[in-house]
Amino acid sequence: MADRPNLAEFDLVVACSVWPRSAAQTARVRALAGEHVDWDRVARIAVRHGVSALVVDALEQADIAVPDRLLRVARRRVTATLRQAGEAVRLRKCFADADIPVLFLKGTALAVRLFGRIELRDAVDIDLAVAADNLPSAWRILDQAGYRRIIPRQELSPETRRLFVWAAKDSFHRHGDHGMVVELHWRLSDDLPDPGVPPLRRWQEVAAMRGEPLATLADEELFIYLCTHGAAHLWARLKWLVDVGAMISASDDGGMRYWARAQASGAGRAAASAFFLLNELMGRPLPEGFPVSRPLRVQALNWLTLRVIRAGDGERDLADTAYRGWAELTAKLLIAPGMANLLSVVRRVLFSAEDIGALGLPMALSFLYPLLRIPLLIVRRWRRSARRSTGYREPKPVNRVLTVRARISMSIQKVKRLI
Hints:
This protein is of the alpha+beta class. It has 18 helices and seven strands.
């Protein structure tokens, strides 16, 4: 897909997202915010990329009247972000009372660390991380805090739980009242050179609401995590790239210390992808001493990234493009630091943690998961497409899919009883 001519609104959103602000960047925002701007499109792009608060802040600093729709959208996101910050503080206290160290990834802790203002970074859910040994206790804490476990949905036997922990890196929990979602990690990312939760000496604390401390990753580990997470998801949200840019800007050497650490750890391709994209999309100069040659795998990754990030002139989400999950699979292969990471991609293809959590098969039947992978994946995609759709949909195909799922479930229950 070549660059399309209708990227004026996307370019404006990108210019508004650059952090920290500068006089040159403010002048660029003024130049792009001409009379022919489609502000409804700007609002949609800002929401899709998770930068609505940054866009409003940049327009206000440039003395540009913020259209009502964009202002309403940003206010809703800011309200949700502040509520999430309060919930993060509450959860930190719950874990502290149980004497279990908990790490906050992204979200409130990252907003404080990078922007100094919680409301400037949109957040969707709360990402927590605990040591794998503390997982059963962490599930109980979240349950007592009002969070119902969504994945894994069933109560798992110790053997099946070990299989789930092997296949997945996190579990999903939704609060029964306000609906906030928590992702509880016991591995940060299977795409990292070292996927595990780092020891306490590689954590740092930031002051959140009312000075309450939240623990997050130390800077070098944080940089590697942000680059790896963004590259593995093709930087499909501008906010992920903005995070890395803000972190580089706050360093006193243009990020070269982070770059050296990323290279030494095996995350060099993910970090290089970030540096080159920040240069191409946001005009951030490469630091002195940074290699200008682009490895073939980084070129391939960024070629695909630019098509994903600009899809639909910046409005279309990755899940709604032709690339979908195959693009992310390709990204994971392109940045894989070693053979263990490549094998983890194969593991995710064959074993779905969502299937294990939903079916809870006994270990004697675990060989069925790879066989059921495709039919259950089709079922999930049908259901997600139906939920996203706002128009009329034919009932028969959905009913047929539900019937297939029901038959699979009934067959599995019969086998369980026989065992």
